[in-house]
Amino acid sequence: YKSLKHIYAQVFSRDGCSVLVSASSLDCEISSVIDSFVIKNRKNAAEIVGEFLAKRSLQKGISKVAFDVSGFRYHGRVKKLAESARKNGLSF
């Protein structure tokens, strides 16, 4: 999901009942990294969220996921998040 200021990503179980991994630009660990950038923009935040999502997923042994854009177009922040997650080891 994305709002005007923030972006959120989650990895669900196969049955969709439980969240296995999540990352968002509001997460304390992620927001401190985002705040360290001189130029803060939403695309950089999406890249960092994708990176953290991939790292957290790989730590739990999840390497393959299905990417659902939830009605958003695949461009801009959504695309940056996906590319960053792929670059950091997730495959979808």
Account of the 3D structure:
This protein is α+β, with helices and mostly antiparallel strands and 92 residues long. The radius of gyration is 12 Å and the shape is globular. It has 3 helices and 2 strands; from the N terminus they run ββααα. Helix 1 crosses helix 2 and helix 2 packs parallel to helix 3 (76-87). It has a two-stranded antiparallel ribbon with strand order 1-2.
Give the fraction of residues assigned to helices. Answer: 40-55%
Strand fraction: 5-15%
Termini separation: 18 Å
Shape: globular
Give average pLDDT, whole number.
92
Rg of Cα set: 12 Å
Encode the helix/strand succession as letters: EEHHH
Biggest sheet record: 2 strands, antiparallel
> Going across the major beta sheet, what is the strand order?
1-2
Structural class: alpha+beta
Poorly predicted segments: none
Q: Number of helix segments?
A: 3
Total number of beta strands:
2
Write the layout of secondary structure elements.
Layout: E1 8-12, E2 19-24, H1 28-35, H2 42-59, H3 76-87
Helix pairs in contact: 1-2, 2-3
Short description:
The chain has 92 residues and is α+β, with helices and mostly antiparallel strands.
